[in-house]
Amino acid sequence: MKLKRTSGILAHISSIPGDYGIGSFGEQTFKFIDFLSESGFSIWQVLPFCVTDSYNSPYKSYGSFSLNPYFIDLQELYENGLLTKAELESAKQEKASPCEFVRLKAKRLDTLQKAAKRFGKVESLKPHTESFCRFMALRKSNGNSPWHGWTNYVPDDDALELWRFTQYMFLKQWGEIKKYANERNIKIIGDIPIYVSYDSTDVWETPEMFMLDSDKNPESVAGVPPDYFCPDGQLWGNPLYDWSVMKRSNFSWWRERIRFMTEIFDGIRLDHFRAFESFYAIPYGDETAKYGKWIKAEGYDFVDTIKPICNGKIMIAEDLGEITREVEKLVEYSGFYSTRVLQFVSPGDIHSPHLPENYNERCIAYTATHDNDTTRGFISKRAINTDRRQILEQMLESDAGIVVFPLQDILWLDSTARLNTPGNPNGNWGWRATREMIDKINRDELLNLNKRYGRFID
């Protein structure tokens, strides 16, 4: 789908202000949408909604069809008689920022379990959601251990009740958020991580779709090769897709995954798009990514298969990293938006595709992504002579079809507001805006800039 010139904000739900330890689908998210509308933005991009891993990363999950229960608005549960006043009060945060991951992991599911019992039976969920709930209930029956060591195949009843309730309530509350945003001409873009975790519903339920041996252990795992910045490469460790089996099934798993995303978002970012053309496979058990190899995928057939499902949606190919001409051709063939990042411009490189002067209408341009430093932090470390206003104008004036700013860059925050540092698993994903930060943003300034550069959609 091609849009008029437009602009937006990248901010995950977890980063929205609120009262209960993490951003949620409560009052402050509606107010955040008001801020977007009042500032002339028409895009809101979020990170993956799936349940996070032990390091709080939304890019590694127990299920690609899962939905993070921490985002459920507790105030609404209280107002509907599903939580008591005391239970609601006990969930209130101690600090407004960062996210209180330790408290959430210790207490939030217990609170939601009480609400689930008062709610009663959830009548029906979609098959992939039911599979995820059953997977989590079986994990509980097996001491929350990974699936390949299970001995008990009777799901824990309380866990099954909890997960069915949270997935239902998440979709209900999110539907209200999305409706509110769409009524104000805000389109919401979701994010699909390229890979899944080995300990996930996806691998447990459809092991034939992955490169596993006869004992269902990975034959090779995902990562990226060595480069100037990382001499050992990056060893991600995710199982890899068996694209020949995927193709024979007419990409059934991917079709369902894309269809699920189109039901809850107005657009989709496809993470690590280059892996649909060819992917880097590292022998299972290697301690570095040095000895992997590139293997061809089924990019063109994949694109042909999913495009009818995505019709009318904003589709973004995250084509960053080691990009070959073959990857560029696949992005061009797909018709999806290509990705540009201002921070990726090398000093003195006037031909860089990441330089605003070189953007075109088929790209989505960011000052930074969730994996980058804040732009203020980036330029201060390099003594670059620019400022917030210059960067806003430079990006909005460009020919990029869509321009997106991380919320931290609109707030002009330093490196302490960085969301994620790749390769360092600790201390990430916790940054969170406060009410005061959002309230102080000059909406008139942003609205006037969006109008001046033709990005305001009335």
Chart the SSEs and their pairings:
Blueprint lengths: L5 E5 L16 H12 L4 E3 L28 H6 L5 H6 L10 H19 L7 H15 L15 H27 L3 E6 L8 H5 L14 E5 L9 E6 L3 H6 L3 H13 L2 E4 L7 E6 L9 E4 L2 H12 L3 E4 L7 H10 L2 E5 L21 E4 L8 H8 L5 H10 L4 E5 H5 L23 H6 L2 H10 L6
Parallel strand pairs: 1-2, 1-12, 2-3, 3-6, 6-9, 9-10, 10-11, 11-12
Antiparallel strand pairs: 4-5, 4-7, 7-8
Helix fraction?
25-40%
- What distance lies between the first and last C-alpha atoms, to the nearest angstrom? 19 Å
Strands across the major sheet, in which order? Answer: 1-2-3-6-9-10-11-12
Rg is: 22 Å
Task: Tally the beta strands.
Answer: 12
Beta-sheet strand percentage? 5-15%
The largest β sheet comes out as: 8 strands, parallel, barrel
Give unreliable regions as ranges: none
Write down the overall geometry. globular
Q: Helix count?
A: 16
Mean pLDDT: 96
- What is the H/E string? EHEHHHHHEHEEHHEEEHEHEEHHEHHH
Counting helices, strands and paired strands, the structural category is alpha/beta
Descriptive notes:
This protein is of the alpha/beta class. Helix content is 37%, strand content 12%. The chain is built from 16 helices and 12 strands. It has helices at residues 27-38, 74-79, 85-90, 101-119, 127-141, 157-183, 201-205, 243-248, 252-264, 299-310, 325-334, 375-382, 388-397, 407-411, 435-440, 443-452, and strands at 6-10, 43-45, 187-192, 220-224, 234-239, 267-270, 278-283, 293-296, 314-317, 337-341, 363-366, 402-406. It has an 8-stranded parallel β-barrel with strand order 1-2-3-6-9-10-11-12. Strands 5-4-7-8 form a 4-stranded antiparallel sheet, with no helix packed on it. Strand 1, helix 1 and strand 2 form a beta-alpha-beta unit. Helix 5 (127-141) packs antiparallel against helix 6. It is globular, with a radius of gyration of 22 Å.
